[in-house]
Amino acid sequence: MTKEIRQIPVLAIKPDPTQPRKDFDEDDLWELAQSIRQNGLLNPITVKTNGDGGYIIIAGERRYRAHQILDAETIECIVYNGSNGKELQLVENINRKDLNYMELAEAYRSYLDSGHTLDELSQVVGKPKNIISWMLNLEKCRPEVQHLVRRSQLSLIIAISLSKLTENGQLRALRMMQTTKLNVAECQALCEQIYLEESQGDMFIEEPKLTDVEMKARARIQNALDRACQALQEVNKMEADNPGISAQAIAEKLDITQEKVDLLYKLVGQFKKNLRQQRVAALC
User: Which of 169, 178, 186, 253 could form a disulfide bond with 165, CB atoms 3.0-4.6 angstroms apart?
Assistant: First the structure.
């Protein structure tokens, strides 16, 4: 492996067509160009020869494009003559803070498609194979989902959850997410519900009718919730009217009170989980 630094004509350099980064913000490029105009190029770009007298960019396409904006004749380059240019390009990509998850998955795929194994990729990027395989599931997403990931308008976790569904299932879930305010956990539960329906081959599950026992249980639950809310409201009102009275009332039984509060948190948490599952089931 050898490296040399020299000035190369901008016109002799071309971007790598397999470069995963496709979108470049014009305003950011213009600001970078003005910085280079004032301060010079702080870090040379890295290129390799392409066999016909020209050069292909390994790292530094933004700096290259900024030089084009400035109509610069030459740009300072590190000419790389080693055999692992793909590794350098991949490391450059994954270390960029502005690379979105879709571009990162495409960088992984490009490296694998060039004849490398998952083990080699894992060593180059320093990530476990299962994490890489997990991220490559983005390739199974509909173009609409991939677009949202590129624009950082959809989280990686939700996109991966969508990737388990058929294209119709993804579109169905995506529409529900866009019309209903669901948090991440609810979006995951929605995808799981649709996945189960698709696996069973039944997209139209009829809502079951409540039995007499279930109707009575519903009434009892509603009554219990009303009484619990009323009790908590009374405690809060007493504390608001007489600040500190709660502490005085429980001073001698602090451990017992804390145990009851912890139990209350646990029960409320479980109840919220049940409600979330029912809400998602209702959407489906």
Answer: 169
